[in-house]
Specification:
single chain; alpha/beta; TIM Barrel; Arc Repressor Mutant, subunit A; 2 domains; 9-stranded mixed sheet; 3-stranded antiparallel sheet; about 40% helix; about 25% strand; globular
Amino acid sequence: MLIAPPLSLYIHIPWCVKKCPYCDFNSHAAGGTIPQDAYVTALLADLDQDLADFGGAIGDRTLGSIFFGGGTPSLFSPDAIGRILQGVQARLPFANANEITLETNPGTVEHGRMDGYRAAGVNRLSFGVQSFDDAMLRKLGRIHSAAEAVHAVDEARAAGFDNFNIDLMYALPGQDLAGAQRDIEQAIALSPTHISHYQLTIEPNTEFAARPPQLPDSDAAWDMQEHCQQLLAQASYAQYEISAYARSGWRSRHNLNYWHFGDYLGIGAGAHGKMTDAGSATIRRRAKQRTPRSFLDNAGSPRAIASDAQVAECDLAFEYMMNALRLIEGVPIGELCERTGLQASSFGAALEQARARGWIEENDKRLRTTETGQRFLNDVIGLFLPDSGTSHA
């Protein structure tokens, strides 16, 4: 039986100061004045459109988390962020202890602005630091320095933020094991509640794809990951997802909702959403127009919707596992059935293959990837594709 899961909201701010050479997100160099007021109006019109279309499916659910992503949301003023949040709350009730995250580029932090974001309702920050090595930051095309990253964290703490994430990447161009460890040690020294630690990969349609830098080989990257994981564990940062580490009680609620195949509305240029309608036993995915101009011109009308389709039953197993198997503790088998509407037997052939290869184990009615499965996660998830040779009917 399909049961409606928790609900979140993703808000996309598409502008940034400059496009980083590794970035494949829907971000656009500002190149002038950003139309903040017009975009705030467009975001709320976009939300109204989604609520008109999905209101019956949403029912009486409350928002458990809100995430401002980008681009660089911290290019928007605290007043603009506050008006967005006020508009959202006037339309959808917030859950108790609602988590509201703002992605922040350390190079865009101004004195006093952190106080404004906190007053606007933001209660969690995510700093896109990537490295504390200035040479590495230049290679990555970042606009901030290591000193500015430390300053941004200090400003946030002075403004009263006790919940913040630091994003770091490893296996950077020319990086060695000692460099990767220094980055982790510096992050730990700043005592964030959460650290995201990603391997740099070359994505299609990026500057790095056109002119690839020399990256550490896979064995060197694996050594970096293992050694950094040890440092994080020693500092009481528990790994709960492939790239996510948190101190006790500070896991990202918003990302957990994604990984547990929860529902989320997505508003803004290029934003994606997923909505479960328990009444009709359907799950839909919707995406908005990607370019800021097209979104601004069409927000609040069906023309702002770039795609909108029901997830086919044959794709549900893959869609669920693509998220859930990233979790280190795994997921309850009962949740798998409740959030896809599928029977556990539908996954039988794929699960059997994964177990036989030592990639998945089942304990206390939970499925989780083994250490080997985590290393070969793409192969594990691929077993659940409709054309993988296994049955999900």
